[in-house]
Amino acid sequence: TAKVIDGKLVSNQIKDEVTAEIARMKNAIGIVPGLAVILVGSRKDSQTYVRNKKKACEVVGINSYEVNLPEDITEEEVVKHIASFNDDSAVHGILVQLPLPRHMKEENILNAVNIGKDVDGFHPLNIGCLAMQGRDPLFVPCTPKGCMELLHRYDIEIKGKRAVVIGRSNIVGMPVALLLQKENATVSMVHSYTKNPEEVTSQADIVISAAGVANLVRGSWIKPGAVVIDVGINPVDDAETPRGYRLVGDVCYEEACKVASAITPVPGGVGPMTIAMLLSNTLGSAKRIHNFN
Ligand code: NAD
């Protein structure tokens, strides 16, 4: 059966490394990294994500600055808050929690973040650099970076391998495909219009699934010995749990375990890596701004 890729364990290692680096920087130059988090509206899931990010900052020693704005605020007002964080020297990273209310254009908001503080890596210039040969973005989006970090820390070879990415969203599928390509994998994309996704996926040495569809990827889709990174987080009804549901990935875990050589569980795989990468990006930003190595 497949080896389990333990995202919880790796994310804790990364948090320890970040904590030590922050202490070293504080001792050397007296600077503590700061992360500003902007939440618009009152979605319960977004509130939970923001709370978890703040808690993680506290654990590693990053100062966090939170702004909660009402659902009906104008785009201009949100941009003003971003602009003031752009100018604030205590802030090294700015994160706008997505999704935004419907009346706002995501592009207008994300464009307002100074690309040097864009720790989510969603600014079009950062994405553009990710796509270009010989260019490196200042920041790589956190979930895709977390997927790559898991492959690296488990010594999984990427160069020359066939990789299939399922899903092509701006926040996961597209950037993770670009990262795999940068590391010389041969990458195919599977999305909701792909004909015969099973046939395409079964060619892959590395499968990264970010479709958001429970049980999409069956054991029969996986080439024997392939490595499977399951980004999906999908609620499925389960009367036996107190909340009435549980979270599963896109991949039929039990089936895939029998064919894959290594696989990430859900929860405990990619999930915990996202926040670890946000902390690492925020530290990286403070180091870059203060020219500290
Ligand atoms: P999204 O809905 O924006 O994009 C989904 C993509 O999957 C689309 O490109 C679509 O074409 C493709 N798709 C949908 N149904 C498909 C199908 N049946 N076959 C093939 N492709 C299909 O979603 P997203 O924001 O990219 O998130 C994807 C999943 O990853 C979700 O379950 C989300 O909860 C999870 N996620 C996890 C983390 C994390 O681990 N920290 C972060 C972000 C997203």
Automatic annotation (TrEMBL):
What are the protein's GO molecular function terms? methenyltetrahydrofolate cyclohydrolase activity; methylenetetrahydrofolate dehydrogenase (NADP+) activity
Q: Which GO terms describe its cellular component?
A: cytosol
Q: Which UniProt keywords apply?
A: Hydrolase, Multifunctional enzyme, NADP, One-carbon metabolism, Oxidoreductase, Photorespiration
Where does the Tetrahydrofolate dehydrogenase/cyclohydrolase NAD(P)-binding domain lie? 141-288
One GO BP annotation is:
tetrahydrofolate interconversion
Query: In its keyword annotation, does this UniProt entry include Oxidoreductase?
Result: yes
What sequence ranges are listed for the domain Tetrahydrofolate dehydrogenase/cyclohydrolase catalytic? 5-120
Q: Which reaction does it catalyse?
A: (6R)-5,10-methylene-5,6,7,8-tetrahydrofolate + NADP(+) = (6R)-5,10-methenyltetrahydrofolate + NADPH; (6R)-5,10-methenyltetrahydrofolate + H2O = (6R)-10-formyltetrahydrofolate + H(+)
UniProt keyword Hydrolase present: yes
Q: Which pathway is this protein engaged in?
A: One-carbon metabolism; tetrahydrofolate interconversion
Q: Give the similarity note.
A: Belongs to the tetrahydrofolate dehydrogenase/cyclohydrolase family.
Q: How is the subunit organization of this protein annotated in UniProt?
A: Homodimer.
Q: What's this chain's function? A: Catalyzes the oxidation of 5,10-methylenetetrahydrofolate to 5,10-methenyltetrahydrofolate and then the hydrolysis of 5,10-methenyltetrahydrofolate to 10-formyltetrahydrofolate.
This protein is called Bifunctional protein FolD 4, chloroplastic-like
Organism, as annotated:
Canna indica (Indian-shot)
Q: Which part of the full protein does this chain span, and how long is the full protein?
A: 69 to 361 of 361
